[in-house]
Here is the input.
Amino acid sequence: MFSFLSPRRATDADPKRAIVRCVDDYERATQRVMELGNPPAGSPEEFELIGLIEAIEKWEARHDDVDAWE
Here is the structure.
């Protein structure tokens, strides 16, 4: 399951961070990215999208070998 970690302060500009820990998380995160589409700039959905994309990219960088996913 992917989870979101809130910014340290409500005034932080950083988007929420998502963590992809397993293949199921990865699949759910990519599905959510498709659901979010192209949200308005500055919206909570945009911050969620940014966090998900970063988490997905980190997962892909660690698991660039397809056989390692299983």
About this structure: The first helix runs from residue 23 to 36. Residues 18-64 form one domain.
